[in-house]
Amino acid sequence: MTQIQGNTIRLRRVFTDFDGAAYDPTNIALKLYDTQKVQIGETITVGAGNKVATGVYEVDIALPMGRDIIIYEFGGTDPRGNPDVDRRPLLTPWAK
């Protein structure tokens, strides 16, 4: 996915168990990292206002300036108390 620095984008995460069934996790958070694994900005707490459907959460973020690649981490805790973390890169050039 390529997005321009400074744009507001919507990130979506679907939380599923090992059988593929959607579930609502606890302690949901979104973090942005640079390519050196250093967190950019504050941790974003994700709550009921971000819920689209069972297990589906969306968060709007403004992409930081000055970084051509960022990694976003969307995670939570599953019903058994285990972490469920997904990290993905975003190409964020200054211009297309």
What percentage of residues falls in helices of 4 or more residues?
under 10%
Give the overall average pLDDT: 95
Give the topology string: H per helix, E per strand.
Answer: EEEEEEE
Q: How would you classify the helix and strand content by structural class?
A: mainly beta
Low-confidence stretches: none
Give the C-alpha Rg.
14 Å
Protein architecture, described:
The mean pLDDT is 95. 0% of the residues lie in helices and 52% in strands. By secondary structure, the protein is mainly beta. It contains no helices and seven strands. The protein has strands at residues 8-14, 26-33, 39-45, 51-53, 56-62, 69-77, 83-91. Strands 3-2-6-7 form a four-stranded antiparallel beta sheet, with no helix packed on it. Strands 1-5-4 form a three-stranded antiparallel beta sheet, with no helix packed on it.
List the defining traits of the structure above.
mainly beta; three-stranded antiparallel sheet; 96 residues; four-stranded antiparallel sheet
Give me the secondary-structure topology:
Blueprint: E1 8-14, E2 26-33, E3 39-45, E4 51-53, E5 56-62, E6 69-77, E7 83-91
Antiparallel strand pairs: 1-5, 2-3, 2-6, 4-5, 6-7
Give a short summary of the structure.
The chain has 96 residues and is mainly β. The chain has no helices and 7 strands.
